[in-house]
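>> received
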Amino acid sequence: MIQPDLIIHDVKDNVAVVVINKILKNQECVAWIMENDKTIKIKCINEIPLGHKIALKNFEIGDTILKYGHDIGKVVSPIKKGDHVHIHNVKTKKW
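>> returned
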């Protein structure tokens, strides 16, 4: 298997986690889906650091982010596929 740039924990996830030092703008990335041991490719549209998330689809305001197969927050500004997903565009639903 090729060393992945991203990890997707669950097949239901709509974000992946960066597992290399950083993803560069316009970089073609390999994402490993842990649950079924498959890989997908996605093009990153901006730089994303280690441990941060990348969108696997387009999101609109109010959409739900899924990680580990669970709801981790709601989208507060539109996110494009391949974009950085973090506190500037996602908030917890608890607050």
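>> The chain has no helices and eleven strands.
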